[in-house]
Structures are given as structure tokens and as C-alpha cells.
Amino acid sequence: MKAPGTSVLGYALLGLIHQKSSSGYNLRKIFAETAMGSFSSSPGAIYPALERLLNRGLIEGKVEEGSGLRRRRIYRITRSGSEELKQWLSQPVTRDEILRGMAELMLRFAFTEQALGAGEAINFLRKLRVELEAYVPSLRQYLRHNGARMPLSGMLALDSGVRNYETLQRWVEYAIETYQTSLAIKNRLPKKSKKH
Amino acid sequence: MKAPGTSVLGYALLGLIHQKSSSGYNLRKIFAETAMGSFSSSPGAIYPALERLLNRGLIEGKVEEGSGLRRRRIYRITRSGSEELKQWLSQPVTRDEILRGMAELMLRFAFTEQALGAGEAINFLRKLRVELEAYVPSLRQYLRHNGARMPLSGMLALDSGVRNYETLQRWVEYAIETYQTSLAIKNRLPKKSKKH
DNA sequence: CATTTCATGTAATCGGTTACATGATTAG
DNA sequence: CTAATCATGTAACCGATTACATGAAATG
Predict the structure, then answer these.
(1) Nearest to B161 among A35, A139, A154 (CB)
(2) Which residues of chain A between 46 and 75 are close to nucleic strand D, CB under 7 A?
(3) Domain boundaries, chain B
(4) Class of domain B8-88
(5) Which residues of B touch A170 (CB under 8 A)?
(6) Is residue A70 predicted with pLDDT exceeding 80?
(7) A180 to chain B: nearest residue by CA?
(8) CA angle at residue A106 from B105 to B140, to 5 degrees?
(9) pTM here?
């Protein structure tokens, strides 16, 4: 009765495989060496997750037949895997998701460009901006009203959260601008002036 | 042969109970209403976690005997619970922990002042500063060197991470200053009117 | 030849999510 | 009286952590 569903780690794997077919070992290295390590690591998580994706037909694996090479299984994304990824990426940006932490949002953003195009990436950023514009002031206000009667460390911890969101807001503006500039260059639009 | 261990949620509960004896319901509300909600919520996680703390003797619960009241169990921390909390709070700040995300670090910081005193809170901040001073430049350098050959969205996502850490560094400076100022004031003043 | 690195797994355990269950008390 | 809220749980499921296992190819 329950939809099996895909875990965040599953989507991280799916997105990486969508970008480039890889073996489990390669994927593990990516998690181990980059900031993506926050979504697990270690074979005990990754190999079972890959097998779940395989069983559900979201990826397919072929053993590399190269002559002098070690045997290893290269996974590539299937059509239904691509569809599931795109559906996940298209989900609305909710305050709930923002509260759960930025890691998952950033993962989605990082995959959006290749999977859905730059236009959708901008769209994602705009929706994020709207949510932040509604949420951050209320957080700031809560801090202003209750900060004084909290222990100093609690107030500071909250302040750290507020600063993070404010930084995120500035980043969103920067990211939107960056995208628009890059799009304008690609299209080589004869439009000279852009309003700010 | 394995030490049972306490989960992050367990420490969050332990720290809150250390600050103020509470019922499970009260604790749930704190998680539901504040930013602490990132560590779970929902009775299915909290009540079992409380029972584990109880079984390990880290907290004790007494049913409130108030006449006209609903029965509810008030938990208070035990000596060994207090010790375990302090030990957790005293752990060194490692880069590994920083990579796992700030939520847990901030939780530790928020509890440190009450459990170990303002001096230890400053100490925590200093250790965090040292780790960040070593880590952030390497992250920034990675972005400079590899950013150009990454997809735009990947570069931007990484940039967001760098900005977050830079914001955190500024926050650490601010927090240390705030603590030092507040300590200086407390020590200098011969206790004027402070209480209400 | 021994060690390291490549490459893929498996098993035990444990905690969290989801969803449901149960009563008691207060509010309308 | 009924509905909402208070207050505490329970059970099924599932995925992540930890630690161990295996074997083959490259490296010294």
C-alpha cells in the first residue's frame, strides 16, 4: 500500500548517474571527496541504494567488458529514472523543505540545470527567493522579541541561523543574476541594456 | 560489545531536560515550534528516545501527582545523565563534525553555557574558529581551481557553501566578542540591581 | 612476493518515519 | 454533548551506520 519511494541518497545517486554513467566505486569516491559526503558515504549505504534503484528500474547496470580491466558495473539512467529525477526536481520549494536544511535544496538545484535546463534553474531560485522573503523576516522578528530573555548561547545560536538565511538570500540574488547574464551571452541577444 | 550510545535526538532531549525538567509533551512542543524541529519531532521518535534515556539511567521520570491535572510524566536529569551530557559537550570540534553540518554543532554550543559555563562556551568558539580557519581557505581554493570547469549550477551550489562558512566565521568572531563583553560586565559590576 | 588500491558486496543492529490507538480533560 | 486539545504511547517498515568479507589488479 505504501509507495516504496526514493531516499535523498537515492536521488543524489540518480542525479549523478544522470550526469554521467558511473560505477558504484566512482560514485563512492565522489561522496567521499566532495561536499556531497553529507549524504552518507560508505558502501553499506551506497550499494544497497543502487540496488534499490536497479530493482525499481530507474537505472540499469552493465558489467564493463574491457579486456585487461577489473570487472566493474557501470550504471546508467533509464527513461523512467530520468522521469523520476525530473519529477523530484520539479517539486515546489516549501518552507518545510527550507526548515529541513539547505543540503537537500542545494542538491536539487545542482541537478536542475542539466536535467531541466537553465530556465528551470532560474525558476527554482525565484521560488526559493519568495519563500525566503516570507520566512526570514519572521525569524528575525522572533529573535528580536525573544532574544533578550533567552540564555546568551541560545540567542547566539539563533542569530547564526538568521545570518545563514540572510547569506542565502544574497546568494540567491547573485545566482539569478549569474544565470541571466550567462543566458544573455549564450543567446547573443542584441539587447544591450538590461534593467536592474 | 558495543556501547549503546546516544543519538543526536537523545542529546537534544537530554540538554533540554538539563535546562528544565519537562514532560514528553512539552519537549515535543519545543521541537515542533522552534528551529530545533530539524532534529525530528513526532511522538514516534521522542517517546522511544526518552525511554532509552530512562533505561540507561540518564534521566528519571516522576508522574505528576497534582490533584486536578492530567497525569503526565515529568523527566529530570540524573547525575550520570548530566555527566554524559557534559562529556558530549566537551568533545573536540573536528572538521568531520563541521562537514556533517552545523546543526549538531549549534546544538552543542547552545547547551554549553548552562552546562559548563561561559568560559567553556568561549573555548568551544575558539576551537571552532581554528577549524574554520584551516578549512575554509581550502574550500575557497577548490572552488577557484575547479569552478570554471564545472556546470554553472554546481559552481553556484559550492559557492553557497563557501558563503555559509564565511558567514559562520564572522558569526564566531561576533559571538566571542559578545561573550567577552558580557563576562567583563559581570565581573566589573559589584552587583547592582539585576533581578526582577 | 607483499602491500596497497580497486571494486563490490553482506549482516547485525538501531533509530526515525508514518500512522494508528487510547484515554482524559477542557472549551464551546 | 461533542469537539478539540492534552498526553502518552505502539507497531510496521525502512534505510543508514558499522564492521566485516572477498577477490582481483597494480605497485613497490
Answers:
(1) A35
(2) 48-49, 52, 68-70
(3) 8-88, 92-188
(4) mainly alpha
(5) 163
(6) no
(7) B152
(8) 70
(9) 0.91
